């Protein structure tokens, strides 16, 4: 046996011992380990789609895809079984229009013969040939923030002027991958004038509308000319224009126009252009929708509603301390605030299946803002649909995303409580088959005590564990001590050098309800390895899994022993 293989087997035997509740990335927000084996998550409350929930269900994952979901699932012998008794699983959230990780394209230089009344397209903010991927950084911290809030897929929109470029749909999976699902999936258009304001055309909303008509009609003519030239002789060759060529997929109705429309006036302008030209339309970032719901439905336009909600400070204003004029102003602001909270409910009542966009919103406000919208008339099913299946339909990815069912990609968010519960927290996110694990704060029980501190679950003490792996069986001990509201511990394991046992400090020990997670370091064969552990604590028993870098995850069982043992 070669030294390299011997070291590898030693590492496996040494570390294949302690594993706990989930699998891939224990308390590992980097998600560098993919769900490539057969994983069975059982006894969870699984919402497969809005209005469809399975109690005590099992979801079977194989090679990053969902193999089965239900209550009577036959679990293969080779499957790694994960207990999720206290957790709630939902389809991974989808962001209809996101700027997470998107930077700005370089500003073009003005030509020597620059004419502000007729500037070059790129100076005027008309760059439909640009691809958002060219300015996208998939390692940006914004992606981590949105993923931590449950988002697994996003349609990226480019930064820029009136027509900044085309979108792309990406997964928030492992940063070592490109994670691209599709490129050039929609053309973004904004009511945003060229640099220089009214001095540069188009600098006004009416100028933008006129310029859009001009570009669209010329693209139609150029496309028709090109097709005729290709099929007949006796025609002059068409002039190549990259702006018009970039518009061909829109003219041919292969991709939609994603129009950013911030109020009912801009919505009407976008709808007017759509009616004139017949392109497919997505309205993004809308507000005041109650005034134009009939027009939106008549145009068969799709809608993305921003998850951004205004600050509620105005609702707490002491009216009696204000002048009569200020009272009137404050009342109007309060009415506008209440109207904003009801936008989602207006769309649902009108029968318009909308999705959510993160534009302008903060990732940390996701669940709070969802609750506010539900408190103001939106149903829970519609809220979940706007985060999942509706956006999958709008983006055209419903074949593999938006619900939890056989054959779809393993994209899901795993919560500690139901979606709209005030105490719900994201425990795990699975994106593109990669699992990301997040620390959760201990919740208080009915006596105001934190579970895992003064609650029923107690992990302090001495434990023996065993683990079965392809390389053989391994065993060791854990000794955990409680210090205030935190824990310290030491773990022993089979020495990689092949003699006796070694020990290591247990790091980041976290207990949420009955779910225990921690990590520890192992030095073997000149390598330094991080072992991630997570598991369910039930009385004097722990069962779960151990994850060792790219070597995979392995089942483990531990039993608590008397201190004198």
Write the layout of secondary structure elements.
Blueprint: H1 3-15, E1 38-49, E2 52-62, E3 65-70, E4 80-83, E5 88-91, E6 93-98, H2 141-148, E7 151-156, E8 165-171, E9 180-190, H3 205-231, H4 242-251, E10 257-260, H5 264-277, E11 281-284, H6 293-299, E12 302-306, H7 324-341, H8 343-349, E13 355-357, H9 366-375, H10 380-387, H11 389-395, E14 412-415, E15 426-431, E16 434-437, E17 461-469, E18 472-483, E19 486-494, E20 501-512, E21 515-524, E22 527-538, E23 541-548, E24 553-561
Parallel strand pairs: 1-4, 1-5, 6-7, 9-10, 10-11, 11-12, 12-13
Antiparallel strand pairs: 1-2, 2-3, 5-14, 7-8, 8-9, 14-15, 15-16, 17-18, 17-24, 18-19, 19-20, 20-21, 21-22, 22-23, 23-24
Helix pairs in contact: 3-4, 3-5
Short description:
By secondary structure, the chain is α+β, with helices and mostly antiparallel strands.
């Amino acid at each position: 046996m070669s030294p390299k293989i011997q070291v590898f087997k030693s590492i496996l035997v040494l570390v294949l011992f302690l594993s706990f509740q989930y699998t891939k990335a224990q308390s590992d927000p980097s998600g560098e380990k993919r769900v490539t084996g057969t994983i069975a998550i059982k006894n969870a409350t699984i919402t497969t789609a809005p209005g469809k929930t399975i109690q005590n269900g099992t979801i079977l994952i194989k090679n990053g895809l969902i193999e089965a979901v239900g209550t009577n699932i036959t679990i293969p012998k080779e499957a790694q079984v994960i207990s999720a008794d206290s957790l709630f699983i939902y389809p991974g959230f989808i962001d209809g229009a996101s700027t997470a990780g998107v930077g700005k394209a370089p500003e073009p230089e003005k030509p020597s013969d620059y004419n502000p009344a007729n500037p070059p397209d790129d100076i005027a903010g008309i760059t439909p040939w640009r691809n958002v991927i060219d300015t996208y950084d998939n390692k940006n911290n914004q992606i981590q923030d949105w993923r931590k809030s449950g988002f697994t897929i996003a349609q990226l929109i480019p930064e820029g002027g009136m027509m900044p470029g085309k979108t792309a749909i990406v997964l928030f999976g492992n940063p070592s991958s490109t994670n691209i699902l599709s490129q050039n999936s929609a053309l973004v258009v904004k009511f945003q004038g060229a640099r220089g304001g009214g001095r540069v055309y188009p600098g006004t909303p009416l100028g933008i509308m006129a310029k859009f008509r001009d570009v669209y009609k010329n693209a139609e003519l150029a496309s028709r000319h090109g097709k005729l030239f290709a099929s007949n002789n006796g025609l002059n060759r068409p002039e190549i224009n990259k702006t018009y060529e970039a518009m061909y997929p829109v003219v041919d109705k292969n991709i939609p126009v994603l129009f950013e429309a911030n109020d009912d006036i801009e919505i009407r302008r976008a709808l007017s252009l759509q009616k004139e030209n017949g392109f497919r339309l997505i309205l993004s970032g809308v507000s005041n929708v109650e005034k134009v719901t009939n027009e939106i439905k008549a145009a068969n336009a799709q809608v993305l509603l921003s998850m951004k909600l205004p600050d509620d400070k105005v609702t707490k204003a002491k009216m009696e301390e204000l002048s009569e004029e200020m009272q009137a102003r404050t009342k109007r602001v309060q009415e506008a605030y209440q109207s904003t909270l009801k936008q989602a409910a207006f769309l649902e009542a009108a029968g318009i299946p909308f999705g959510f966009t993160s534009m302008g919103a903060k990732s940390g406000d996701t669940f709070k803002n969802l609750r506010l919208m539900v408190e103001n008339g939106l149903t829970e099913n519609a809220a979940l649909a706007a985060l999942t299946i509706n956006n999958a339909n709008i983006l055209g990815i419903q074949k593999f995303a938006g619900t939890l069912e056989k054959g779809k990609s393993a994209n899901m968010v795993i919560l500690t409580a139901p979606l709209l519960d005030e105490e719900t927290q994201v425990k795990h996110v699975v994106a593109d088959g990669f699992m990301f694990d997040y620390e959760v704060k201990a919740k208080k029980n009915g006596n105001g005590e934190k579970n895992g501190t003064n609650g029923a679950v107690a992990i302090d003490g001495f434990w023996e564990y065993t683990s079965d792996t392809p390389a053989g069986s391994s065993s060791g001990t854990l000794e955990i001590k409680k210090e205030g509201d935190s824990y310290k511990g030491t773990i022993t394991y089979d020495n990689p050098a092949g003699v006796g046992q070694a020990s290591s400090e247990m790091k980041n020990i976290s207990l949420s309800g009955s779910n225990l997670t921690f990590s520890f370091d192992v030095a073997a064969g000149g390598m330094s390895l991080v072992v991630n552990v997570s598991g369910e604590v039930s009385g004097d028993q722990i069962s779960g899994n151990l994850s060792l870098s790219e070597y995979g995850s392995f089942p483990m069982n531990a039993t608590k022993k008397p201190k004198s043992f």
